[in-house]
Specification:
Layout (H helix, E strand, L loop, with lengths): L8 E5 L6 H7 L5 E7 H15 L2 E5 L3 H14 L2 E8 L1 H14 L3 E5 L11 E4 L5 E4 L5 E5 H5 L3 H12 L1 H15 L5 H16 L8 H18 L8 H12 L6 H15 L4 H11 L5 H4 L3 H14 L12 H10 L5
Parallel strand pairs: 1-8, 2-3, 2-4, 4-5, 5-8
Antiparallel strand pairs: 6-7
Bound molecules: zinc ion (ZN).
Amino acid sequence: MKDIELPRKVLVGDNAIDSVRDVIRELGLTGNPLVIADSNTAEIAGNRVKSDLDSEIYISENSIDQNIQRATELIKGKNIRYVVGVGGGTVIDLTKICAYKSGIPFLSVPTAASHDGITSPQVSLKGKEPISIRVHSALGIIADTKIIRRAPPRLTAAGCADAISNYTAVLDWKIAHEETGEYYGDYAASLSMMSAQIVMYNAEKIRNQVEILVEALISSGVAMGIAGSSRPCSGAEHQFSHALDMICPKPALHGEQCGVGSIMIAYLHDADWEKVKKALKTAGAPTNSKELKIDDEYIIKALMMANKVRDRYTILRGGLSREKAIELAKSTGVIE
Ligand SMILES: [Zn+2]
């Protein structure tokens, strides 16, 4: 049986945030809301949403575990009926988990477009053991492009890289299907691939036309909702990024690492890795270890351990030897 979850209302555009109250009314949400933000995103938009909704606000400032515990306690104690996450990936992830645990709906109000987690029914938590949990889809997404356009360029570039990395995620999904018979959904795969292609094609315009990226990331989230897993948007390049998160003292941004991973994974697939690299460069995203500010040794180690990070069949299925990992990173210019 297929179990598809999608957002019901998506608003993308300048000043979309003015419509938060209308969206909530249209969705039929009633009772006490809770806004979740961090100190930075509260200033950007969270406090504004809080006063529009006359609601409580929870400011995320602790470790993820503490945040989850405190916010869910607040939800229970104050009889909160829905949550509105205002922020980047971390805040939205926190919102998703709290809403899921409390059995209430949530709205996503992204202040940056740094990865597809702002719209996906999936949460990836960094830590010693990266975990990916399936949660509910946002009931509504309100993406104010005026706010997102003002986000640091590095975040937008990382969002482009995360969308571009769908390219190799789909290639990995295909071989998993061909070689193991794993479920493969043409519709979800095509939607994900299309998001990657549109971002690659428009990489130059995105800084000014951030709605192109926002729509691509929303489509990625929808692709995951249709597939019922993160498969269409997460292959070996994501395993590589998760591996870096585990071993690097100072990892780069999720999308940045996935983008660089995608160059190398495209090479292994005999796909157009130079196109991936060029698009990342145009989008202003890193394409090598230096730009990621990550030592070559971590790149090599992450490539070698990537296939063990998650139980997911990808082009890295057999694992890479040290020699092969070095050869791959050098052939694609990721290390010198
Ligand atoms: Zn991602």
